[in-house]
Write the structure tokens for this entry.
Amino acid sequence: MNQIKIRILESSVLTPRWETNFCIEELQNRFEVEYWDCTKIVSPSFSPKTEISKPYVVKIESLKDLNQRIKQLSLDTLLITNIHENPENFRFYKTIASRFKTIVTINFFADNSEELPQSRLMKLIRKFNPRHAREIFYWKLYRKMFQKILISCSPSTEPYRINHPDYESFIRVQGNTSDDIVSLKPMIVYIDNYFPFHPEIKKREPSFQPEKVAHDFYQSLNRFFSLVEEKYHCQIVIAAHPSADFEKNPFNGRKIIFNKTDVLVKESMGVLMHTSNSLSYVYLNNVPVAFLTNAAYEEAKLESHRLKTLSEINHIRIVDTDQYKTSNEDILTPLDSELRTAYMKYQTDGNPETNAQRLTAYLTEIAQQIEKDHHHHSKS
């Protein structure tokens, strides 16, 4: 069998996070890998500050460019893409389907928190929402277009389960001391989710106007941070969202650090946050936490609703930064031990193999099966 060709099609420029999650450096030892940056097609407004340049990155300029490149690939090439299967991306997937009928999806961030029962009202609203009906229609179209092979960190995934990448990161940083981070202690970490300017927020809530709430949001947050620093005799350090692009520091000069959320949480005395996948690091390191809101944040209705849902699921209090005044009451909530035990099961199955080892084995097996299928069909 010739060297297996892998093409990773993503809606983001290559960042340290995606390079690590896909284990690209390790996969290069076994496969011929290219990372196709499809930002200009599916998320033109997304431009994280942490883009990295590597020889295997290919910039896809347009659907026409994608179509030409797809046509040049051999049929035994393995396509991996996690790009949303929504109505907006239908032409993107139709272009791929013109030549390939099998795709691999790697779900790095499967989480049980969104699967808990919703209220009857929320179920009814979702059921009769025209957008929901449209999404179902396109979901069925996608299922007809492709055989989709899933690799996921969800416990229900068989046979291709991986660790949650945050667990992999947690293992990597254990015992490693970063002097520049340790020098910031004692600290409480604020996990930034680039509110209100994250492009996904505007996409989910078209009527939301981030420019109108930004000043009030940061003013409330900074007043609150000052009170917390005084109460806990520490400093607030900002773990920046990968997509954040601050023209100037909106946190009154507080230290902003990119791409070290795992280490920051590990070395912190507590965490402040809104809605973020980095809640994983809080659970993994068993650090007390508080969810934050204020009037400006609640202007984003879906974000606010999700925050309340996360609060209920995780038994973590929400602190209103508009209303908070210095008191003897702790704002940080220790994690529920039973919930943490359950959460860990969603991070790892305990198998000592790393994701790099697992992905190498899984992708080899999948590629061999695809090659067999092509050989069988060509004989037929």
